[in-house]
């Protein structure tokens, strides 16, 4: 793949914040979200060059599908899941919980007080 262009982009802070929230919702970086939106806009307008490469995949490579598995879904799971639960977490917690529990508390009694 060829070297990717680096550009400086000036945005209104409110627009940047909205893009960053949207990117987080879709588990992308802000930069990847901007590129995704630009590519989609170019494709919708019929202006995406045919020689444009794909968006590079980040992270760990996907596992090869098991023998007899359908080509559309990853081996051994629901389409779109790689491992972990339905939220993509692997630490046993629930969505919105950073500590592996169910309430998001860091410790303490029922009233949330430490100890």
UniProtKB/TrEMBL annotation:
Transmembrane segments: none annotated. One of its GO terms (biological process) is regulation of DNA-templated transcription. Residues 90-115 have a biased composition (Gly residues). Residues 45-115 are annotated as: Disordered. Signal peptide: none annotated. Residues 64-73 have a biased composition (Low complexity). InterPro entries: Arc_rbn_hlx_hlx, Ribbon_hlx_hlx. Gene3D superfamilies: Met repressor-like. This is Toxin-antitoxin system HicB family antitoxin.
